[in-house]
Design goal:
257 residues, alpha/beta, Rossmann fold, two-stranded antiparallel sheet, 33% helix, elongated
């Protein structure tokens, strides 16, 4: 509409003269629609949605046992990581992933933190898969392994301050207690609390009495234990672990705020 500057009457956009007073209508006479201001409740709702979208991100650090019996799980992570990342993304969560491989520090097998183009975490699952493909299950000696020391190393990694901090332990062996750094299971529980980890997941043989000590770690934060399985066929374990990984992805998405 064109509003007459002389008499303030609205006229059609196509009009050249005011239908009321006959004054010439110029381009400057076109009225600008007035946007109604948002109410306080509408503004708060929109800000809440914006903040929620901004906060829906997760840094996921896998702490992976790479001893001789774990080739199935290594293959499972490699083969399913893209589907895992895609499922989290489809749920509206921006995810970065990282991985620490561990074996047995008491026989001089030190942990290794994977890097992706020089970074500890990556949002590119293809780059992650390529690095995981280089891992080979080996070493470890007899049980137990240095899993709790590996969790302490994971706590020291550069998680984002605005993302949900997630640790996923994957092992078929019980932990050394004590280890080179770990003093007790309670020591690790306290470290997880201090590290402000929001989610902790255990993929372990839940029926193994010696591995059930890991369940104590769930006292430190929100989390679940998933069954690893103990089949001797690496290929079957890889397929089983892929399914577990997809369930884990959905769980992480739902728990990320």
């Amino acid at each position: 509409m064109k509003t007459c500057t002389r008499c303030s009457i609205n006229n059609p956009d196509s009009g050249k003269f005011c239908t009321n007073c006959g004054a010439a209508l110029t381009q400057a006479s076109i009225s600008t629609p007035v946007t109604q201001p948002l109410s306080a409740s509408e503004l708060q709702a929109r800000l809440g949605l914006f903040n929620k979208l901004q906060q829906r991100s997760a840094d996921i650090m896998f702490v992976l046992d790479c001893t001789g019996s774990m080739q199935g799980e290594i293959d499972g992570i490699k083969d399913a990581i893209i589907s895992f990342a895609d499922s989290i993304k489809s749920d509206g969560v921006r995810a970065r992933v990282g991985l620490i491989e561990f074996r047995d520090r008491l026989i001089h097998e030190e942990h290794q933190v994977l890097t992706f183009n020089g970074e500890i975490f990556t949002s590119d699952p293809a780059i992650f898969r390529n690095e995981v493909a280089k891992l080979k299950a080996s070493g470890g000696g007899d049980e137990p392994e240095s899993s709790l020391d590996a969790i302490l190393l994971a706590l020291r990694q550069p998680f984002s301050n605005v993302a949900s901090k997630v640790i996923v332990l994957v092992t078929d062996a019980s932990p050394h207690i004590p280890d080179l750094e770990t003093k007790s299971i309670e020591y690790t529980v306290q470290a997880i609390r201090k590290g402000n980890i929001q989610q902790l997941y255990l993929v372990i043989p839940t029926q193994d009495v010696n591995c059930q000590i890991y369940l104590k770690l769930l006292e430190a934060t929100r989390g679940l234990a998933f069954e690893l399985g103990q089949d001797s066929d690496f290929r079957k374990r890889a397929e089983d672990f892929k399914r577990t990984l997809m369930s884990l992805g959905k769980t992480i998405s739902q728990a990320t705020r």
